[in-house]
Structures are given as C-alpha cells and as structure tokens.
C-alpha cells in the first residue's frame, strides 16, 4: 500500500507536468491565434483535469486503507522507509502546482490585456466606451462633465 501511494503521487506529478506543458502550448496557440490548436490544448487540459481528479480520489482511498486522512498525517505519523520519498514527491507536486498557477495567470493576463487593448482602440477610433470624465466644455465653473452618450464621429454638427 505504501508503494501504491508513492506511485500515485508520482503519477500526479507527471500529469501536472503534462498540464503545465498543455497550458504553455495553449498560450502559444492564443498568441498565434490558431483556433484549432486552442481547441486541441483545451481538450487536452480537460482530460488531464479529469485524470488529476481520478488520481486524487484514488489517493484518498489509499490513505484511508492505510489509516490516514491526509498525506501530511501519513508523513508525520508513518514510520515506513518510503515516508521520505512521499514527502519529496509531495513537495514536487506543490512546486508543479505553483508553476501551473503562474502559467495560468500569464494566460489570464494576456486575455485581460487583449480586452483592454480592444476597448482602448474602440474608444480612440469609434468613440465607443467613453471615459468617465472629461475636461469642462463651455462651462468653466464645472470641474468635470460626463461626455455625450453618442460617439464622437456619429454626431450631427
């Protein structure tokens, strides 16, 4: 049973590494605007997520059979020779999860930048999404005014 836990953690580490590579591929596909690759990587990430979920469920069953609630309990209270290897494997998984979160944050930042860039272009070129304030016009006593709801280039002068 102790080796089953260690093998489960090794497999989780491998799946997390595959997920990191899939997210990096997704990032490259988004930059290249290749929708087929985006779809491919998205499906791959979904499959890997299901695999992680399955491995987590399997790990919980193994731990319950060993008489522990968590891997931390196993590391703290078990005297098996594999305990040290389990601790190292768990540390590796935490490291991979941190790397995965960084890659995911990079993708999120790319999409946010793209959205803000499109909004900026719409504002500058079409007059859509007007700013929340503007310098006073025709009324020097007013500090700020709300711009007209109509886009700048669609107004009848």
From TrEMBL:
Keywords, comma-separated and alphabetical: Coiled coil
Coiled-coil stretches noted in the UniProt entry, renumbered to this chain: 38-65
Protein's recorded name: Flagellar protein FlgN
Organism: Fervidobacterium thailandense
């Amino acid at each position: 049973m102790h080796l089953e836990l260690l093998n489960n953690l090794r497999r989780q580490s491998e799946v997390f590494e595959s997920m990191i590579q899939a997210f990096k591929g997704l990032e490259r596909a988004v930059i290249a605007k290749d929708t087929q690759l985006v779809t491919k990587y998205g499906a791959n990430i979904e499959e890997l997520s299901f695999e992680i979920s399955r491995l987590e469920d399997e790990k919980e069953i193994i731990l319950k059979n060993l008489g522990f609630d968590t891997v931390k309990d196993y590391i703290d209270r078990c005297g098996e020779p594999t305990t040290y290897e389990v601790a190292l494997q768990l540390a590796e998984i935490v490291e991979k999860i941190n790397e995965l979160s960084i890659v995911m944050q990079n993708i999120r930042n790319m999409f946010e930048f793209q959205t803000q860039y499109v909004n900026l272009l719409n504002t500058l070129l079409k007059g859509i999404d007007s700013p929340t304030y503007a310098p006073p016009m025709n009324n020097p006593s007013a500090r700020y005014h709300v711009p007209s709801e109509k886009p700048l280039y669609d107004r009848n002068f």
